[in-house]
Please model this.
Amino acid sequence: MKISAPHIANLFRYASYSGVKEDELRNFLTHDKLDVCNVNNTVSESEFLNVFKALMVCTKDNYFGLHYGCNLNIKALGFITQLSLNASSIEQAVYILQNYFKDSFPLVSLDGKTIKDKYVLKLETTIQHIDLKNQLLDTVYCFLYRELKLMATSEMLPVLKLPYSNCAEHSKFLDARIEKGKEHSFVFDVIILDNKINRKTVNEIELLLPKFLQMLDKKKSGYRPFSIQVRNLVLNMCRPELPTFEQVAVHFPLSNRTIQRKLTEEGLSFRKITDDVKSELSSYLTKGNKMKTQDIAFILGYSEPSAYLHAVKKWKSKSITGLNVRIMKSLIVG
Model:
């Protein structure tokens, strides 16, 4: 069973947030110099699982699969956008996903079945170790739920079912109510089979994705190492809405207070970082009238367009103030 090497690359990147060195994880690979970013390279099932398990142990995170799956967001969006654009129905999307898992990540399979008046999607794996099995399925479950939210209208979203007695953490990170079930599954009303994909959200993400990736690669003036890590996590976790402080903080082996202190020492705060991201996205989306004000407000997490417009006014005021300060400093130096 061969697994696409970039799945290992994603684990290596995530490890950096927990202070786990890539070299330590590469010891689990047969070829420790393997270019894991090359889509043509593969690793074995045991190699992937050993790296996955090692990171589970190192992070000491009981919800590792869930948190890791949420962090994969920005890379998943790239695939999901293309998937949704190439499928006109949920059945077509499921078929594409089934082949994706078969070709890229055969540890997991997806089964779609009509049962009475319901259409049920179920994740399966041959892994027997219960904790490892659930952590891995949690990761893929996050990936799938983002796709389903893009495809289905709000009225057609599925009932989420997971095999846990307490789903509070999953509900918080997936931003949805979850029911106790026997397996990792999504339960739709059967009429979803007659519905077309909701293109509006897909088009928004198609527009935003290049900007997200550009912002990840761009060096941010005034940001120091820890602030950059926090900013990159915020960008990685956009859905395209921005994540909360609690959703970001869980990825670090630090208390919330310590995270806030480290940011303060670097002259920033979580609020300032997210405001910077919102300001940059707002500027991008308003150029050329790419989107309506109310749509931009929704994407950036504002309940009302008026709140968004108030924030824009504040950003512009700070920008002008900062420019004036720089001009005065240059005149003094001159």
Summary: The chain has three domains: 1-60, 61-197, 199-333.
